[in-house]
Amino acid sequence: MSKAKQTRSIRVSGRRWPVRFNGEAKGYFAICHDGLQATPRQIVFNREVLRSDRLLVDSLVHEMLHAAGWPIDEAFVDGFAKDVARELIRFGFKRVKK
Ligand SMILES: [Zn+2]
């Protein structure tokens, strides 16, 4: 099992967000549930994100921004996450297999 897949939670602005990796995020790479509806507060990643460092970073930043501020515009969140992922990969960041 990958290190990313073993991650059980993400801390954002002092709050712990449970993390799951499964196939529920159909049509999405990840979903951030705010816990205000029937689904409990959590971030669900599609296993597809584990195939690429860039996709994993993009999805992590994207969902963490949603968790940090729900009113933040989706287009801003999406563009910022893609910018961060692209630049981190350009600077050579990548997962280390252990
Ligand atoms: Zn989004």
Question: Could you walk me through the main structural features you see in this protein, from its secondary elements to its overall organization?
Answer:
It is a single chain. By secondary structure, the protein is α+β, with helices and mostly antiparallel strands. The chain has one domain (3-90). The protein is 38% helix and 21% strand. It has three helices and four strands. The protein has helices at residues 3-6, 53-68, 74-90; strands spanning 9-12, 15-22, 30-33, 42-46. It has a four-stranded mixed beta sheet, covered by helices on one side. Strand 3 (30-33) and strand 4 form a beta hairpin. Helix 2 (53-68) packs antiparallel against helix 3. The radius of gyration is 13 Å and the shape is globular. The termini are close together. The mean pLDDT is 89. It binds zinc ion (ZN).
Question: What's the structural blueprint in terms of helices and strands?
Answer:
Blueprint (H helix, E strand, L loop, with lengths): L2 H4 L2 E4 L2 E8 L7 E4 L8 E5 L6 H16 L5 H17 L8
Parallel strand pairs: 2-4
Antiparallel strand pairs: 1-2, 3-4
Bound molecules: zinc ion.
Zinc ion binds next to helix 2 and helix 3.
